[in-house]
Amino acid sequence: IFLKILENPALDMRDKKAAIIDFITAGIETLANSLVFLLYLLSGRPDWQRKINSELPPYAMLCSEDLAGAPSVRAAINEAFRLLPTAPFLARLLDSPMTIGGHKIPPGTFVLAHTAAACRREENFWRAEEYLPERWIKVQEPHAYSLVAPFGRGRRMCPGKRFVELELHLLLAKIMQKWRVEFDGELDIQFDFLLSAKSPVTLRLVEW
Questions:
Q1: Burial of 82 from C-beta contacts in 10 A (0-12 / 13-18 / 19+)
Q2: More reliable by pLDDT, 110 or 28
Q3: 158 belongs to an annotated ligand binding site
Q4: Which residue of 15, 26, 49, 126 is surrounded by the most CB atoms within 10 Å?
Q5: Strands 204-207, 103-105: parallel, antiparallel or unpaired by DSSP?
Q6: Domain boundaries, given as residue ranges, for the chain
Q7: pLDDT (mean) for 21-39
């Protein structure tokens, strides 16, 4: 795939580099990191774990109707994406001039939008530093949901978005059907182009 991108004469070299970086980024254990962050955050909300469990059929094969009937699963995932997104910012190289807040930015400028930082500001989310999945069930203003962009935005959105979301929904639902999650202490997080756990994570799965 990389060679085909590089050999394509219709693509500008900047586009080629950006595409290859996107592929590399998407492959650095993003799903695993997202799942670790999700389970860690949920470990602090045993009440929400019970809510998820109550919305799912016990020990049954899950179908799309089961997931659709468990809005607490999606809420838990959305809130994890807000607080601990694996990709905490959007990076773009401007093709044309832009004016933001009175500042004129010339083309060719590298622009970084730190969506993770914006999601933790009280002006954008109610009780912004807390893990509150219920905000995605019953909205409490402010609620700037468009800032939650773990897969990017626009033409450069991650092509694996739907695949990862479906996997997270299924994994969380299957876990919550049978177990509750426990974790002691705080999760040590590092930034290495993406957010990830700094050391091995020990989570306990306890049968209901």
A1: buried
A2: 110
A3: yes
A4: 49
A5: unpaired
A6: 1-207
A7: 79
Q: Which CATH class is domain 1-207?
A: mainly alpha
User: What phi, psi does 54 have (nearest 5°)?
Assistant: -70, -20
Which pTM was predicted? 0.83
Average pLDDT on 156-171 reads 84
**pLDDT value for 36:** 94
**Vertex 89: Cα angle to 91 and 121 (nearest 5):** 135
**C-alpha separations of 39 from 83, 102, 173 in Å:** 13, 42, 12
Cα–Cα distance measured from residue 150 to residue 89, given in angstroms and rounded to the nearest whole number: 8
Amino acid 30: pLDDT? 80
Sorted by sequence, the CB contacts under 8 Å of residue 201 that are 6+ apart come out as: 36, 40, 183, 187
| Main-chain phi, psi angles of 57, to 5 degrees | -70, 140
Give the type of residue at 149. A
Cα–Cα distance measured from residue 136 to residue 134, given in angstroms and rounded to the nearest whole number: 5
State mean pLDDT over 76-89.
94
At a CB cut-off of 8 Å and minimum separation 6, what does 138 contact? none
Handedness of CA 143, 144, 147, 151 (dihedral sign): positive
pLDDT (average), residues 136-165: 87
